[in-house]
């Protein structure tokens, strides 16, 4: 297929409106296979305006007598309006945008064509290999080992090649445990909390089914997890479903760990919203944010009605529960829901952020996202195919990753000095997860990424983000390493709507930008003063 | 004095302490203990995690309720001024004791459990009396003594000078003059004596107009915008009834219009809902008829009355008090209270007036019923939007002095300082303070002061520790000789201004200069629940690290480094000079000893590199990011314990991030016990109940 087949009119005169606060742009509109460009006239000083077609979430067209208006709602929640001269041209362009923005094929997507200056292909994919972390844990604990049982993705298609498992369990047992877990996601280590010697483990639900099946190897594996921590250690299984939902899952072959089969482990149910209801909550929140005509009361009613903040609260408190179990109770924690690719990862990654100072650094957080989301098999392509505006909704979409970013933002608001990265990084991750010129968030699993040769044929977002010019946007100037766990408050009064994301294109950006400039200025002033201290000691001995 | 000391000693002996352990409590504090009410084994319940309670001793003094925890390492003290107490509720006796709930006007909530019902009743009865003084003289400000001499006290009162403020606005000028018509409060007893009125308004017109206005509060200047001569004037409602007219009042409004040559009309803004204003007509009051007044544009802005606002706050506080509510309960309750809608209504009125003045160049006359509640709110919000001076620390004090204190806002009635009609109580200035906070959230760089400044002002409006907010009018304050008998809050805040600075303040930026430009679209979501005020005593709910404090420390550090650098540079210069001299000396071979002697003596006074690195070492401990207690803070704690609202109310200073972050998220230490699972299949052994 050629992109040109989809482009009937490639060029038109247009006016672009970018919301109430930004001035409109006029110029020549150009459509390419991956982009929409607006080139202002020669007299204009502003630069070329560029939009990745992939980031268009929904498109709406309206025609007048000699022009057409296209409203583009983007995945990053921006709303753009194009006024295009000529009815035919505008209809053609609208149709093309519609077709080009919803292409399914991964290998014809823009990341496979994106060749930015200053970056070399193949660079930086290994910035954050999970293996490095796993090796460190294996070395430090002596109770865990790296296994290559999934080298060819045959045991678990959604796991990466390298996984870390209890040393005492052999690969054969792992394979059998995998057959007892949905999608083959047998329990693997997610995080080792060195101060308490406990571990965070994640998996999918066991396939106990209506017959209450058991699996000796799976039981052995979890026993080994406890033994690895310390003799007599206890464990908690945090099930992210309600106990009723977990029971119901038995009817379809899933279920929960039977108490008798797993001595030392106790199960806690912490239902987290997932799938379609979560997507629905996101859609309703964005709708409410976009309605500027409503009264204060109806705004609050809609904020309440969409339940988004309630989901934030539940996610954070479940993560706190897991973290508290490890740090305070010295217990091992196993987290799973059903598939173990969504709310499970939400809980394990947030728990690490709470406990582990390293994961709160710039590099550590990127490593965490790579290890606990991308490599751990969160199906980004399915979950982030559409954002809050699209009408073509499949049942696979869910803003789980966005919910994670929101929870991280809440942590950052409550501990403004403890995260090395700022809101900028979280916004960038949100944008790139939904539409990106980089290959990092492509596909649903490591296996698919290997098949598409993503690593060799696209650039990594991490190398893009770690360029020096991006630093200021992404870093938190207030950062001061905090060696302790950061326990957030999950009370309602402590949680806020993430205005920087949900109202990013609606509220005027200047006041917060001006404030941010000032923060940087105060911090850099200090650095400068420190550096400019004259070195008297050098001249001292001459006296 | 002797008897007081006697009680003191008795306390000491009863508590089984040696006199030596008086140390943590200064002797001065003990003199506060006038009556001998002391109850031991009282438990203070932590509201967030109700399982946790601190055991301690409760003291009632003439001015404070004091709870001292038994825990020997902290002996945490909670101090509450009687004037802060809003309600006291004795709840049904339980097995553990008799619960007593004390709600404070600064939104602190104290839940005590007293073992003996009889003791609880005694405390209850005493507090009811102590919290409702009947004479001004009983208020704390008449006994509060910050150890300043007479001169210092007088200077404190002179810090804010309204005549200076009118001069700053550019008055008097060709259009406005100072009028002495209200000398000795002859015309209006709730107005100040010094007022600015249009030049063309004669005493005859003013007096005539005053007779046509509720409580004789005639139109007078609140703010003059020198850029375009437009002004904000204020008054009470006219006594128009259904058809009454007053020539002088019409002339008065005409005079206001004439004082602004750039415009041919004025806005008359009635801040009440139209229905309320119409109802007033039946009582011979009402609003201006556009037909009778030439060149006015009349406008209603529906801000609800004090009773609606009082109920709204009550409802919002009930939401805050809910025990483990769901997110939906909270947001629904917040909406249902209507509080944020009322805040927005006040803001909208302020924005309307600021736009009329700055953009249209039209003068505005603002009134409500009596012109001392909504009018004060709206005039001060508009002034704050228009003039960056009011967004500075001192300017904000001036603004409150001008629009609230001098124009007769009834502080005593609204904030219940003396026992009075509960229907008169309403959070009028609280709402204004919240409007300022909402603006601060939207414009983080526009204000010289920080959130703490607002919170401390709110605290002192109720504390009665300083004389500024006493009584209902300037006249009453004068009769009571407030300035001779009490201290000024403004001087106290100014002295501690370092605590109130906003490090992000940028007076140089185009956005913060001149009128604050609010977004054109109505952004309801910009109005947020102010957890920092209404939950301020629940430290666990607040962000655990303060950006403001951190940045202030960084700035301070920078300044220190700067000073050191200057000192070092000076020294370097000298060293170089000396070296230069040395070479010169060598070349000239003259008087070497004198030069070297000079340089060594000079060196000894300058900083040495050793000192410098020593200072460097001390920096981390000053930086709040490290979570160590600031030495300056400790100092304030000792000196100003009873005058700093944070400290006086709760001496448990946050000892830093480390300390707080160590607390478990639920605040409880309850472990998931092995056999607590009720459901055999799923062990809901919840160790996080939140």
Quick structural summary:
The complex is a heterodimer of chains A (543) and B (690). Chain A is of the alpha+beta class and 543 residues long.
What brief labels describe this structure?
heterodimer; A: 543 residues; alpha+beta; 7-stranded antiparallel sheet; 5-stranded mixed sheet; 39% helix; 15% strand; globular; B: 690 residues; 26 helices
Written account of the structure:
The complex is a heterodimer of chains A (543) and B (690). With 543 residues, chain A is an alpha+beta fold. Chain A contains 20 helices and 14 strands. In chain A, the strands form 3 sheets. Chain A has a 7-stranded antiparallel sheet with strand order 4-3-2-1-7-6-5, with helices on one face. A 5-stranded mixed sheet of chain A has the order 10-11-14-12-13, with helices on both faces. In chain A, helix 12 (400-414) runs antiparallel to helix 13. The longest helix of chain A is centred in the last third of the chain and has 22 residues, at 510-531. The radius of gyration of chain A is 25 Å and the shape is globular. The N and C termini of chain A lie far apart (81 Å). Chain B starts with a helix and ends in a 28-residue tail after the last helix. In chain B, strand 12 (266-270), helix 8 and strand 13 (296-300) form a beta-alpha-beta unit. Chain B has 690 residues and is α+β, with helices and mostly antiparallel strands. In chain B, strands 4-3-2-1-7-6-5 form a 7-stranded antiparallel sheet. The longest helix of chain B is centred in the last third of the chain and has 42 residues, at 547-588. Residues 1-35, 588-643 and 647-690 of chain B have low confidence and may be disordered. In chain B, helix 9 (306-321) runs antiparallel to helix 10 and helix 15 (428-442) runs antiparallel to helix 16 (451-463). At the A-B interface, helix 5, strand 13, helix 7, helix 8 and helix 19 of A face helix 10, helix 11, helix 21 and helix 26 of B. Chain B: It is a peripheral membrane protein. Chain B: Its main location: cytoplasm.
């Amino acid at each position: 297929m050629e992109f040109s087949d989809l482009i009937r009119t490639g060029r038109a005169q247009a006016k672009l409106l970018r919301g109430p606060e930004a001035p409109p742009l006029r110029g020549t509109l150009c459509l390419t296979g991956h982009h929409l460009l607006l080139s202002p006239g020669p007299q204009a000083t502003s630069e070329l305006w560029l939009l990745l077609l992939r980031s268009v979430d929904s498109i709406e067209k309206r025609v007048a007598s000699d022009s057409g208006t296209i409203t583009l709602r983007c995945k990053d929640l921006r709303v753009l309006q194009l006024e295009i001269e000529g009815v035919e041209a505008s209809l053609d362009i609208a149709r093309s945008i519609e077709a080009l923005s919803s292409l399914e094929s991964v290998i014809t997507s823009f990341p496979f064509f994106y060749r930015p200056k200053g970056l070399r292909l193949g660079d930086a994919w290994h910035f954050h290999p999970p293996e490095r972390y796993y090796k460190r844990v294996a070395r430090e604990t002596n109770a865990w080992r790296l296994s290559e049982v999934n080298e060819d993705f045959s045991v678990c298609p959604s796991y990466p090649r390298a996984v870390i498992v209890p040393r005492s369990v052999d690969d054969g047992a792992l394979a059998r445990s995998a057959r007892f877990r949905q999608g083959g996601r047998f329990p693997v280590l997610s995080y080792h909390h060195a101060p308490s010697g406990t571990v965070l483990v994640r998996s999918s639900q066991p396939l106990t089914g209506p017959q209450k099946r058991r699996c000796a190897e799976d039981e052995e594996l979890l026993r080994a997890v406890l033994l690895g921590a310390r003799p007599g250690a206890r464990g908690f299984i945090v099930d992210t479903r309600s106990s009723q939902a977990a029971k119901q899952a038995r009817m379809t072959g899933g279920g929960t760990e039977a108490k008798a089969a797993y001595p030392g482990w106790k199960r806690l149910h912490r239902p987290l919203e997932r799938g379609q209801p979560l997507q629905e909550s996101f859609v309703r929140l964005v709708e409410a944010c976009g309605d500027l005509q409503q009264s204060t009361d109806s705004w609050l009613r809609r904020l309440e009605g969409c339940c988004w903040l309630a989901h934030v609260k539940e996610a954070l408190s479940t993560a706190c529960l897991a973290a508290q179990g490890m740090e305070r109770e010295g217990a091992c924690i196993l987290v799973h829901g059903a598939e173990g690719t969504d709310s499970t990862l939400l809980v394990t990654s947030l728990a690490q952020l709470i406990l582990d100072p390293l994961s709160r650094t710039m590099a550590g957080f990127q490593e965490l996202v790579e290890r606990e989301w991308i490599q751990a098999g969160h199906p980004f392509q399915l979950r982030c195919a559409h954002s809050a505006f699209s009408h073509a909704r499949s049942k696979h979409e869910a803003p789980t990753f966005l919910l994670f970013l929101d929870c991280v933002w809440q942590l950052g608001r409550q501990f403004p000095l403890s995260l090395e990265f700022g809101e900028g990084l979280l916004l960038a991750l949100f944008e790139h997860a939904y539409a990106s010129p980089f290959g990092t968030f492509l596909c649903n699993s490591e296996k698919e990424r290997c098949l598409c040769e993503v690593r060799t044929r696209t650039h990594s977002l991490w190398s893009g983000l770690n360029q020096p010019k991006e630093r200021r946007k992404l870093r938190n100037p207030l950062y001061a390493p905090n060696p302790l766990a950061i326990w957030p408050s999950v009370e309602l009064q402590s949680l806020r709507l993430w205005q920087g994301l949900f109202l990013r294109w609606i509220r005027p950006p200047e006041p917060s930008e001006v404030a941010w400039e000032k923060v940087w200025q105060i911090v850099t002033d200090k650095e400068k003063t420190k550096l400019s201290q004259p070195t008297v000691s050098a001249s001292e001995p001459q006296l | 004095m002797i008897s007081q000391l006697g009680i003191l000693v008795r306390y000491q002996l009863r508590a089984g302490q040696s006199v030596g352990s008086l140390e943590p409590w200064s002797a001065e504090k003990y003199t506060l203990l006038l009556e001998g009410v002391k109850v031991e084994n009282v438990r203070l319940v932590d509201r967030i995690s109700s399982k946790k309670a601190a055991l301690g001793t409760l003291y009632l003094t003439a001015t404070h309720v004091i709870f001292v925890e038994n825990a020997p390492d902290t002996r945490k003290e909670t101090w509450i001024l009687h004037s802060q107490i809003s309600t006291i509720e004795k709840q049904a006796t339980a097995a553990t004791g008799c619960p007593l709930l004390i709600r404070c006007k600064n939104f602190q909530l104290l839940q005590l459990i007293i073992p003996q019902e009889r003791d609880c009743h005694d405390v209850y009865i005493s507090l009811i009396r102590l919290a409702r003084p009947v004479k001004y003289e009983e208020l704390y400000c008449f006994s509060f003594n910050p150890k300043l001499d007479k001169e210092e006290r007088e200077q404190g009162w002179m810090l804010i000078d309204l005549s200076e403020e009118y001069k700053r606005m550019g008055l008097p000028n060709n259009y406005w003059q100072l009028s002495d018509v209200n000398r000795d409060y002859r015309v209006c007893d709730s107005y100040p004596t010094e007022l600015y009125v249009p030049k063309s308004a004669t005493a005859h017109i003013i007096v005539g107009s005053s007779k046509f206005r509720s409580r004789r509060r005639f139109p007078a200047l609140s703010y003059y915008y020198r850029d375009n001569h437009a002004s904000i004037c204020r008054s009470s409602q006219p006594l128009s009834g259904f058809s009454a007219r007053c020539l002088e009042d019409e002339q008065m409004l005409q005079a206001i219009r004439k004082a602004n040559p750039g415009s041919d009309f004025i806005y008359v803004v009635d801040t009440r809902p139209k229905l309320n204003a119409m109802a007033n007509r039946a009582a011979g009051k009402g609003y201006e008829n556009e037909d009778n007044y030439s060149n006015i544009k009349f406008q209603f802005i529906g801000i609800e009355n004090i009773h609606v606002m009082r109920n709204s706050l009550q409802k919002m506080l009930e939401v805050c008090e809910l025990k483990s509510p769901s997110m939906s309960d909270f947001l629904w309750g917040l909406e249902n209270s209507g509080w944020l809608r009322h805040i927005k209504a006040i803001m909208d009125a302020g924005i309307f007036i600021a736009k009329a003045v700055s953009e249209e160049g039209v003068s505005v006359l603002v009134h409500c019923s009596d012109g001392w509640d909504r009018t004060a709110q709206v005039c001060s919000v508009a002034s704050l939007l228009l003039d960056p001076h009011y967004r500075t620390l001192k300017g904000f004090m001036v603004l409150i002095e001008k629009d609230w204190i001098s124009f007769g806002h009834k502080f005593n009635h609204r904030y219940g300082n003396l026992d009075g009609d509960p229907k008169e109580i309403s959070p009028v200035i609280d709402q204004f303070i919240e409007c300022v906070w909402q603006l601060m959230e939207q414009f983080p760089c526009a204000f010289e002061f920080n959130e703490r400044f607002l919170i401390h002002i709110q605290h002192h409006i109720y504390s009665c520790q300083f004389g500024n907010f006493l009584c209902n009018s300037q006249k009453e304050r004068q009769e009571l000789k407030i300035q001779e008998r009490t201290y000024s809050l403004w001087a106290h805040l100014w002295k501690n201004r370092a605590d109130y600075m906003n490090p992000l303040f940028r007076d140089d930026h185009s956005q913060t200069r001149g009128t604050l430009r609010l977004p054109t679209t109505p952004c309801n979501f910009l109005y947020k629940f102010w957890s920092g005020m209404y939950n301020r005593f629940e430290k666990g709910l607040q962000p655990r690290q303060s950006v403001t404090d951190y940045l202030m420390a960084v700035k301070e550090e920078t300044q220190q480094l700067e000073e050191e650098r200057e000192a070092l540079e000076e020294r370097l210069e000298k060293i170089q000079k000396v070296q230069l001299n040395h070479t010169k000396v060598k070349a000239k071979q003259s008087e070497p000893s004198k030069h070297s002697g000079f340089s060594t003596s000079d060196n000894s006074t300058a900083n040495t590199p050793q000192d410098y690195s020593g200072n460097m070492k001390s920096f981390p401990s000053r930086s709040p990011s490290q979570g160590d207690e600031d030495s300056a803070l400790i100092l304030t704690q000792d000196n100003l314990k009873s005058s700093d609202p944070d400290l006086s109310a709760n001496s448990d200073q946050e000892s830093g991030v480390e300390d707080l972050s160590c607390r478990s998220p639920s605040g409880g230490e309850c472990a998931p016990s092995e056999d607590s699972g009720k459901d055999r299949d799923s062990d809901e052994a919840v160790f996080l109940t939140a």
